[in-house]
Amino acid sequence: MDLLRDGLIEAVRLILRADPELRQLVLRSLIVLLTATALAAVVGVPVGVALAIGQFHGRALVLVL
Amino acid sequence: MGLPPVLVGLVVTLFLWRTGPFGALGLLDTPAAMALAQFLVAEPIAAGFTRAALGLLEPDLLAALRVDGAGRLALGWELVRAASPQVLLAVAAAFGRAISEVGASLMVGGNIAGQTRILTTAIVLKTDRGNFALAIALGMVLLALAFLVNVALGWSARLPAPAGA
User: Fold this and answer.
1) Ranked by mean pLDDT, which of A10-24, B3-17, B54-68 comes out on top?
2) Are the C-beta atoms of residues B87 and A45 closer than 8 Å to each other?
3) For B1-24, what is each residue's pLDDT tens digit?
4) pLDDT number for residue B154
5) B74 — contact with chain A (CB < 8 Å)?
6) Cα(A18)–Cα(B90) distance, integer angstroms
7) In chain A, whose CA is at the least distance from the CA of B105?
8) Residues of A in contact with B116 (CB under 8 A)
9) What would the CATH number be for the domain defined by B5-117?
């Protein structure tokens, strides 16, 4: 259990003192994630709308994906 | 609905490889490549949930809009507005997919310290090396991040209060 307990204590310590490596990772993760999510929304929602109301070639294939 | 992240990682790597079709762009092992890979993993989720949400709308609404002579764009916009809480949920699901995948990010980003290492790929590395304290800390932050973004999206998408409440 020492592994878990020591790991947890040290983890909380790293977060509380805003470890520079940790801060950098959080920032980069947020940038990548929010870029990807924004793109997914801008492209995915219209594609979803087209799938819901439209008839077009390849619709069946896109539906499977 | 949804593509396996490792497959996306493979295909994006092939396209961005130095001698590949888009190799000249030099995007492999950059955060841009990671965002692209996560986008490809998340986009089908957003599309699938949006389609499902619109499928639940009253068929009368679509018919009425068509009678009104709404163009395709206006029609789509009105439907998205009518199902906006569910469409926001679709975006939240896409975010959830992006934050939970690690394979594609690892493959196209290379997990380079200070450049393309992000929370998920760092957890893989730190756990591998037995640096559990940092791995746990990263895990906690990742969880908090997912929670915060979902609360924000859920708040903006909050469903109307049930009738009579």
Assistant:
1) B3-17
2) yes
3) 689 999 999 999 999 999 999 999
4) 76
5) no
6) 33
7) A32
8) 28
9) 1.10.3720.10
